[in-house]
Specification:
- By secondary structure, the protein is of the alpha/beta class.
- It has a domain of 226 residues: Rossmann fold (3-Layer(aba) Sandwich).
- The strands form 4 sheets. Strands 3-2-1-4-5-7-6 form a 7-stranded mixed β-sheet, with helices on both faces. Strands 13-12-14-15 form a 4-stranded antiparallel β-sheet, with no helix packed on it.
Length: 415
């Protein structure tokens, strides 16, 4: 293949899905078994390998575009953030690799988190590729704390003839139903590197002299297809919570509370008996009745299980979704609705109990389509989703370099 787009640390396919919407295929390098299986199910080309061990020579004179999203666990606020402690070592590795010196083995022994040094891997590839005038363009993405490292990359790339932009972008400004902030590097040999113009804003903007204003941020309710209501309700995935904990409802078919909202009540399926009962986990003693149409409660999303977790009403975008070793740390929680005028509302009624977010819902809030083929256990699926690049943000970043016009209608979210 000529004019390859090479995607390091490709994950479950955030960049790849965006490229597919734009009519381009990439070759993804990824180590995680289940991310590779998800990519295969999505029809994406993948080399399962350790990016730090794979040779560069197969790509040297064939790479048009270069993408890299190194693992963020060492740097993320959801983890121990040892990447910040290791940052001087990572900077040293980048400087050495840019000069053609491979000191990774020595530096790795001093790292507090061995994943920290993976953020230097793109430079190993870029040093080899630039010697033959490749790639034409570069896009890299990471958590905000990696921005100083991207600035170091920018200085080196400018010395190699690239135009470079680095900065922090908010995914919500590009139609993603999540205020996910990421450090971005954009570089090009053929055009001035600039961030794509935002398509959305926190508040809708009126039409101006130069065309229509930006649309309002996409809310979780809108993305999930909950309709124009101030009391949307989450989907309940029966058969066990994504983290393997107690069931929100008895095992059985997938249920939704949407109809229950309209009726004002929800009744659990008849309890199982005999062998069925022995095979399933015990149901909770109290079924969480949906009182959304009867009492002044509205659903919000708690983005993780930390004390300072972001809690957003469903009428707003989600906060940054975190999925760690507990697999699913995001919960739909019921909170008193402000300004409720529901006839017969009873403010003293207990709120519906919290409900774990489903993998499908989490994927949609990352701007993946509802039918994206996530593979593995629930924990493995949530890990992939939490680490993925939002495809809609990726599409905005990619389109100018591919000479394409982004059609957001192709990024179907809700089923």
């Amino acid at each position: 293949m000529k004019d390859l787009v090479v995607d390091l640390f490709a994950g479950p396919g955030g960049w790849s899905h965006a490229l597919g919407v734009l009519g381009v295929r990439d070759v993804g390098l990824e180590w995680d078994e289940w991310a590779c299986k998800t990519r295969a199910a999505a029809g994406q080309l993948t080399i399962r390998t350790d990016v730090a061990m794979y040779p560069v020579w197969p790509f040297t004179d064939r790479t048009r575009g270069f993408i890299a999203s190194p693992p963020c666990q060492a740097w993320s606020m959801a983890g121990k953030r040892l990447g910040l402690v290791d940052q001087p070592l990572v900077h040293q590795a980048v400087a050495d690799l840019a000069a053609g010196r491979d000191t990774r083995a020595q530096l790795l022994t001093a790292c507090r988190d061995p994943r920290s040094l993976l953020a230097a891997e793109p430079m190993r590839y870029l040093h080899a590729l630039q010697s033959v005038g490749r790639p034409e363009w570069i896009l890299m993405e990471e958590v905000p704390d990696v921005l100083p490292l991207w600035r170091q990359y920018a200085v080196i790339l400018r010395g190699w003839g690239f135009s470079v932009w680095t900065g922090i972008l908010n995914a919500a400004d590009y139609g993603v139903p999540q205020t996910r902030r990421r450090a971005i590097l954009i570089a090009s040999r053929t055009r001035t590197a600039l961030p794509p113009p935002p398509s959305h804003a926190q508040g809708a903007e009126p039409e101006g002299l130069f065309g229509p204003g930006r649309e309002q941020w996409v809310s979780m309710a809108e993305a999930l297809g909950w309709g124009a209501t101030d009391r949307p309700v989450p989907t309940v995935c029966a058969g066990g919570g994504p983290g393997g904990g107690p069931e929100p409802f008895p095992s059985g078919a997938r249920k939704t509370l949407t109809d229950a909202r309209d009726r004002g009540t929800w009744k659990a399926p008849a309890p199982r008996t005999g062998s069925q009962q022995r095979r399933s986990r015990p149901a909770r003693s109290e079924t969480p009745a949906c009182t959304c149409g009867k009492h002044p409660w509205a659903w919000s999303l708690r983005s993780n299980n930390q004390a300072n977790a972001t809690i957003r009403p469903a009428t707003e975008p989600a906060g940054t979704l975190f999925f760690g070793h507990r697999a699913n740390e995001c919960m739909w929680v019921a909170e008193p609705a402000t300004g409720s005028r529901t006839p017969g509302a009873d403010s003293t009624s207990p709120a519906p109990e919290s409900i774990r977010i489903t993998a499908t819902e989490a994927g949609i809030l990352q701007s993946f389509p509802a039918d994206y083929p996530w593979t593995g256990t629930k924990g493995q699926q949530f890990s992939q989703i939490g680490n993925a690049v939002p495809p809609l943000l990726a599409g905005h970043l990619l389109a100018p370099h591919l000479g394409k016009t982004l059609n957001r209608s192709n990024f179907t979210l809700a089923a």
